[in-house]
Amino acid sequence: MARVLLALVLIVATGCGILTKPAERISVERQQFLNSYARARVLYATVAERMTRLCAQQRIELAECARMASVHEQAKALDAEIQAKLAVPESEVDWGRIMRLLELALELAL
Question: Tens place of pLDDT for every residue, the chain, 110 residues?
């Protein structure tokens, strides 16, 4: 009888683990990271669009436009790295990447 009861408990216990799915959760820090990233990305995009327009209108020197194009390539690579981290929910947030994106936005604006 004890063996039957033990077998039943084991079947129910393992079955619950198979049939149920853990709730998807997002930590407060990760949500703050997502919010900050979104704001930094919008800020960068706004500055980059303005500078691209000024370069297209030839209101900025060619050398400066070339420098800004280099900064933009760095920002695109950084954005790809951040997107890759966000694709893996278990990855740790990296605030330094957000700060670097903001630095690149400032570098474009100055």
Answer: 545 444 444 454 445 555 555 545 567 788 899 999 999 999 999 999 999 999 999 999 999 999 999 999 999 999 999 999 888 888 888 889 889 888 989 888 87
Total-model pTM: 0.68
The answer to whether residue 37 sits within a structural domain is yes
Q: Which domain holds residue 60?
A: 30-109
CB 38 within 8 A of CB 65: no
Tokens (6 digits) for 94:
């990296």
Count of structural domains, the chain: 1
In degrees, rounded to 5, the angle at the alpha carbon of residue 74 between the alpha carbons of residues 52 and 76 is 70
- Distance (Å, rounded) from C-alpha 3 to C-alpha 15? 18
- Token pair for residue 100? 């670097």
